[in-house]
Design a protein that fits this description.
This protein is of the alpha+beta class. The chain is 25% helix and 38% strand. The chain is globular. It starts with 7 loop residues before the first strand and ends with a strand. InterPro entries: UPF0047_YjbQ-like (IPR001602), YjbQ-like_sf (IPR035917).
Length: 428
């Protein structure tokens, strides 16, 4: 292992021109931006960010039928009450796609979505970072077919990973389907998984299919709803690797969320998941604690930036921030108290605590507990940001937030939350 070159990092910025509020396919733009570097990469990771663009977001979804993109935008408007700041934060401003054999490891029907949420559009900067892993590609990247018993949320923490895991790093799991997703949530009580499925069905009701709200209706009432759920939750999840093993919080597990009654197109409930792990040591991995102090959003940009500045200088790389809790999450959103307050209000409207009485089973820890699990899944426990010249590439308008979803904090933690921060990149 020591005789082969270490991971190489390439960062480039490409500009996407948008003319109006819409969702644009950006797969070709990402591929062109990486050029020959992508073609020569056997195993690696492509990371795309629009964290400097306050009106934009990124997702992976269906690349064939443009009606999916129109329906997606309409659904997002209803879910977020038409608020562009909330929508861009909820969908997410970054995404990670494994690279295998010189190509983005996208599924047959998958494409990169650029959400433009400003009415006028504009010139939008996308930062694309390619991590090309050295070592034996058979040990750093792997495909696995995971069988879901049926529609619902399934615990798959023991899903196969790759062999060449470092002492400290990050594992990336990527689902190659547009109607199934991956998330991190509670690994103990199966009622959490039942309740999460029920909550998703209320957030994205299949009645929209029957009411004429959706255009994309050819594959049944669970199809377009599944596309929306996949975008809300995400196709990929990144998990810290510590002492050579994927490492999560005490109560955390990896979920495969199957959003269709009959599974994916031509595949039933068998879902392909790609796992890639950089076999080389991260420049830095550190666990920090953040005292939330209250429910809502807490700006942790400076906390994380201070760790980056103190522990290692990095010219080009990726900073991974992972929340070790199932009722808190991390998000990039607009700077300021106005956004912090309206994002918290939006989450409470999307996942109301009245559901604790109406249909939730997992209710023993109070009315904010199961809603906290749902919010954690749709916001996300894991976030990766590009690093340029030793600085997190967030721009002036956006900040990194910890989202505390409980009034009294998590089980045995109060309002103290643990975050694992991992830096992978090239030293300055």
């Amino acid at each position: 292992m020591a005789s082969v070159p270490s991971t190489s990092f390439t960062r480039t910025t490409t500009v996407a021109s948008t003319s109006k509020r819409a969702i644009y396919l950006a797969t070709d733009a990402v591929t062109r931006a990486l050029g020959d570097s992508l073609k020569s990469t056997k195993v690696g990771l492509a990371h795309v960010s629009v964290a400097t663009e306050r009106s934009c977001a990124l997702s992976i979804n269906e690349a064939a039928d443009p009606s999916v993109r129109r329906d997606m935008l309409k659904a997002l408007d209803v879910i977020t009450d038409g608020d562009a700041d909330v929508a861009s934060a909820l969908v997410g401003k970054t995404l990670s796609v494994p690279v295998l054999d010189g190509k983005l490891a996208l599924g047959t029907w998958q494409g990169v979505y650029l959400f433009e949420l400003d009415d006028e559009g504009g010139e939008r900067a996308m930062t694309v970072t390619l991590s090309a892993y050295g070592g034996d590609p058979r040990e750093t990247g792997r495909r696995a077919a995971l069988r879901a018993p049926g529609r619902g949320c399934h615990l798959v923490t023991d899903a196969p990973t790759v062999k060449a895991a470092p002492d400290k790093g990050v594992a990336t799991y990527f689902c190659q389907h547009t109607s199934a997703s991956l998330t991190i949530n509670e690994n103990c009580d199966p009622d959490v998984r039942v309740d999460l499925e029920g909550a998703l069905n209320k957030i994205v009701p299949e009645s929209w299919h029957h009411e004429g709200f959706f255009e994309h209706v050819d594959e049944g009432p669970d199809d377009m709803a599944a596309h929306v759920k996949t975008t809300l939750i995400g196709s990929s999840i990144r998990v810290p690797v510590t002492r050579g093993r994927p490492c999560m919080g005490t109560w955390q597990g990896l979920y495969l969320n199957e959003h269709r009654n009959i599974g994916g197109f031509g595949r039933g409930h068998s879902r392909d998941v790609v796992c890639v792990i950089d076999p080389y040591e991260a420049l830095m991995q550190k666990t920090i604690t953040v005292s939330a102090g209250k429910r809502g959003l807490i700006d942790i940009t400076e906390d994380v930036a201070a760790v980056l500045a103190k522990e290692s200088r990095c010219d080009t790389g990726l900073l991974h921030c992972f929340c070790e809790h199932t009722s808190a999450s991390v998000v990039v959103g607009r700077r300021g108290v106005e956004f912090e307050n309206k994002f918290e209000r939006a989450l409470n409207a999307i996942v109301p605590e009245s559901w604790n009485v109406e249909f939730f089973r997992h209710t023993s820890e109070g009315p904010d507990d199961m809603p906290g699990h749902v919010k954690s899944t749709i916001v996300g426990a894991s976030l990766t940001l590009p690093v340029a010249n030793g600085v997190i590439a967030l721009g002036d308008d956006c900040r990194l937030y910890l989202c505390e979803h409980r009034t009294v904090g998590g089980f045995n933690s109060g309002l103290i939350r643990r975050l694992t921060v991992t830096l992978q990149g090239a030293k300055m």
